[in-house]
Structures are given as structure tokens and as C-alpha cells.
Design goal:
The chain is mainly beta. Helix content is 0%, strand content 51%.
Amino acid sequence: MYDDDNLYVGGMLYDDAPDKLVVNELKRDFNARDGDLFVLVLDTFDDNRNSYGFQTNPAGAQRDTQSYDDGRNNNQNWDAVWDLRAQITDEGWVLEYAIPFRARVSMRLYDVTGREVRTLIDEEMDPGQYAIVLEASGLSSGVYYFRMTAGDFVQTRKVALVK
């Protein structure tokens, strides 16, 4: 099911022994090898070569991947913005995904005092990979921090600028 903003996926995964479901990790991008798992793979380009994967375990941990080059390469560092609910029941487990078609993305550069010195992106964007060029004129050499937000996802990275 979908609307203008999201793709919605739900499922009831029946299990004769829900008390024996295996959940080894609760962190984002958990190790998916040794536990119960549900995986949704989307071939959004309809080319049978590139895909996005959305995975969860019965406890609701999120894992997402981006595959390309006929599936020979897998970008496990790709973090999508999506909502998930999962719950173990007496009959197995239930899950609900809400995967947005677009997300508000911002990327800002801060100096060591926390003062914003550049806004690199601040717009609605489609999922994918983007290259961003930092125009460093007017900036002095030193340590800076990039902060990227996309929906509820926030990531900060320290960078050194050497001129």
C-alpha cells in the first residue's frame, strides 16, 4: 500500500514457537546471520541489478542495504530514513514498515565553537547517493564538523580542512 509520501508494508509472520524466536542484536545495522529475520528488497529501477534492502528482526531492529552491480556489491553503510514497528505475539510476530519516497535532508558545516559556517544542502531529496562539493573559499585550515540530518536520522563527522 502507498500514499503520496510513503510505501507501507505490513506482515504477520506466524511461528509455532514464538518464545523461541532468535534475536541477537537490537542495534541499527545488526548482524543478520544468526537470527530470525524479515527482508524486503526493492528493485526501484526495475533493472534486476540494483536494489534497496530493508530488514528487521522480531524485536524491531533496523538494517538496510543498497546493492548494485548485479548484486555483486553491497553498501551496508547506506542508512535509509524509514519507520518500523515490530512486536512478538502469541502467534509469531507482526511488522509494519513506512518507507518514505523523499526526505528533508540538510547538511551543515560547523566550526569548533559550534558556529554554523556553511549550509551545503537543505531540501527535499529522493533516496540515493549524492556527491557534495564543499566550496572552501573563505574558510581557514582547521577542524570542522559536518552534520547531516534526514528525517530522524542524524550523523555528525569531524573533518580537517588543510589549505
